[in-house]
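Module 6 notes. Inverse folding takes a fixed backbone as the condition and produces residue identities as the prediction. Think of it as a translation problem where the source language is geometry and the target language is the twenty amino acids. Below is one complete input and output pair. Work through it position by position during the lab.
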């Protein structure tokens, strides 16, 4: 089930990047980012209200975890900038490379409280394939 959800997330990210990019072309990068996040705020507010979620544990989370919201905004802005020059597929491919490298570093060193998962040489094959794909997409 997790594989299906992860694949669906990938599809949604591609659609999101496409829609965000078009909005950036219409409204500009920063105005579109405000509109995109307002739509997200409305969506999650409805979900929270429907599920009767509570916020009584706000103090239990470390302060830096709340930066995820800012990271999300920066990600949308960077994607919107990249979209116009690289298109959806190359933007996602280069993002995947960045995500993979960051994840390998986080896992290897156990950063931010994660369990340490040592880097194995087999992962180099995956990185080489990603880089090869980016090169092919860039050239052709």
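Target side of the pair, the amino acids:
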């Amino acid at each position: 089930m997790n594989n299906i959800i992860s694949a669906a997330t990938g599809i949604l990210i591609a659609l999101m990047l496409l829609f965000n990019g078009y909005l950036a072309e219409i409204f500009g990068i920063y105005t579109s980012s405000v509109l995109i996040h307002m739509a997200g705020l409305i969506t999650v507010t409805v979900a929270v209200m429907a599920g009767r979620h509570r916020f009584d544990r706000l103090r239990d989370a470390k302060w830096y975890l709340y930066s995820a919201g800012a990271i999300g905004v920066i990600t949308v802005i960077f994607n919107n900038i990249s979209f116009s020059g690289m298109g959806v597929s190359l933007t996602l491919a280069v993002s995947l490379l960045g995500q993979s490298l960051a994840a390998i570093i986080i896992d290897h060193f156990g950063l931010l409280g994660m369990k340490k998962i040592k880097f194995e040489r087999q992962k180099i094959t995956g990185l080489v394939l990603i880089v090869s794909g980016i090169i092919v997409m860039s050239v052709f």
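Reference fact for the lab report: Residues 68-109 form the longest helix (42 residues).
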